[in-house]
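Lab meeting minutes (informal)
Scribe: AK
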Amino acid sequence: MTTSAKSRDPGGEKSIERILSSAEPRPVPSPDETEAVRQHVLAEWQSVAGRRKKHRSWVSLAVAASVLIAVVAVFNTLRINGIADVQVAAIEKSFGSVYVLGENAEMLEGGDLITVARGQILITDDESGVGLAWDGGGSLRIDANTRLEFVDRDLIHLHSGRIYFDSEREQLLARHSIGANAELAIRTDHGTVRHIGTRYMVQSDVKGLTVSVRQGEVLLGSGNGSNAAIGGQQLQVPGGGNASIVDIKTYGDNWNWAEQLSPDLNVDGRSIFDFLRWVSHETGLGIEFESAAVESAAKTATLEGTVNVNPTDALRIWMMGVDFDWSIEDGVIRIEPIDESIGESNGVTSEQ
């Protein structure tokens, strides 16, 4: 589902230059590591130079080769023991042009990128997006026109743009809960965002910070103190100003971009109920069954295959071949049976 980005005007080169100039330097060996290399090379030199000085030209070449081998070997050892890049995420889905700020501050096309390492910076243009499986657990999604730095396994720096994080992704895709929610701190120029078991969206630019919470709780620490928002709330922080909270919908147009980057779902042997729960989780819509009997039937009927389209389209496609009808009203997916005999039980049940 890869698309091509629009061609850039000549000014695009200046934009890239500005991005490169703002890049932080790559890590360098510590003084102790540098001294270890120097001592190793000196010892190698003295060992060779102390030998009999026959065939001087041959000896000079040997010394040079030995020194080179020693330097390469030691630096490779240092790289393996801590300087080497550490994977923090794996790319599950992407479209458009994605760029990576490389070791030498060069801009690299990310089309063949499979994993993301600590220290790398990912940049999307105005027609691209990336969905990542976070190594610590969870689903991290990057919208268009975003610049995101992967500082460590539990810390990212959102320089500008918009991201979405789902800390409960593994619990949903697995058939049972697998433990604690994923941990991640999102640093911005307006403060650091942390969460407590949640799904939320963070947007940051020169004008300020906006944190929209779909479920759970989000905490923001900044120079002006700390603030919190829960599901159905949006925390707004204008540049240099005080935070305010407004109520928002947990579904709809503002969240659609994140749904396009939802991870695929294998539904082989899983129930319609599980599938609907996934759609609800990804869209923010509630679920309401016409009766307890309809909910029970949805838990019994199973599906086959892999869902690899966005949840809204998946609802339309995958519900075509089952014995249930559905509609969306006021932020709720309403499920009723096509066969009236399924719904003989009284009462309405709902899931969120």
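Next up, CB showed the second protein from the same session:
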Amino acid sequence: MKPVVLYTTKFCPYCHRALKKLDQKGVEYTNINVSKNREEFDEIMKETGWDSVPQIFIDGVFIGGCDDLYALDDQGKLDELLGVG
């Protein structure tokens, strides 16, 4: 399974949806809560150009946010990206 990293905040409903999808698939991930770490969020914003959460990386590649994660799953591409199935 490829490494998955998410940058989230505690009260973001889209973050919770993304985490739930990964949990349903049995994916292990690193969840970095940026609510209290503005410097880390500033760094990731510079890398992606996004100023919202969640920001999801699979195997070091930025795939987008929650809607992007669900779209990949709907297209049947998520499992391949994750290295599952």
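CB comment: The mean pLDDT is 94.
No objections, moving on.
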